[in-house]
Amino acid sequence: MEDLYHFTIAGGISASTYILVFIVGIVSAVLACYLPVLAMFANYVQKGAAGDKRKAIRIALNFILGMVVTSVLTGLIIALLGQQFLPFVEKYNLLTWVPPVFDILAGLQLIGVISFAMPTFQKSLSRPELGQSNFAAFKLGIPYGLVISPCAIPIFFALISYIALQGSPLHGALLMTTYSLGKGVILVAVAVFSISILSKLARWGGLVRKVAGYLSIAIGIIFLVIGFIKTDH
């Protein structure tokens, strides 16, 4: 138990993990069912920027900063709660099978075999009373730190399960921030290129979704097999 605790707190997460989470964030923002959110975001930014790309970028960055605030708090809370369950993690080998199972569920969701639904805040972007100032964008970004498209629900739960099982508040906050920044890359692109980037995402979104789905299933199965082989030995 003590060895597991020191592993999770003392940096058992490599740089490659952060790169992967960043990529996952990007993928989550280009999935077909996230396009309505991107379209509303583009419309929101266009109203505030009035054709000024620099202003569009500032609005987008403040929006993303709001998302990051929520992500940091979410990561901290999930990791702190996860620490309370470390004895159960070790006893039932949860690190072996929980993250891979969510990877497989994520893949099945992405290729359309199963379907999950979760409430989102999409309509708030289209509310006419919202301002487009930097501070208004920041405030609006705060609840959007938890916006999840139906396509990305298993991906999100795979991430928070990993954070909870690792149990490191620092890594939890940084991983959730990395995930938000991955989505933020697409938001900035949408703010600058708006309609043109959305049309390209719509064109390639289905293919990206299927490729990500099959990769997620394959990775989940591989890690399950490796985990159970190590457990048997």
From TrEMBL:
Alphabetically ordered keywords of this record: Membrane, Transmembrane, Transmembrane helix
Domain Cytochrome C biogenesis protein transmembrane: 19-223
Pfam families for this protein: DsbD_TM (PF02683)
Topology term for the membrane: Multi-pass membrane protein
Transmembrane segments: 15-38, 59-81, 101-121, 142-165, 177-199, 211-229
Entry keyword Transmembrane helix: yes
Subcellular location: Membrane
Principal subcellular localisation of the protein: membrane
Keyword Transmembrane helix: yes
Similarity-based family: Belongs to the DsbD family.
Classification via PANTHER family: BLL1027 PROTEIN, CYTOCHROME C-TYPE BIOGENESIS PROTEIN HI_1454-RELATED
Protein name: Cytochrome c biogenesis CcdA family protein
Source organism per UniProt: Paenibacillus chondroitinus
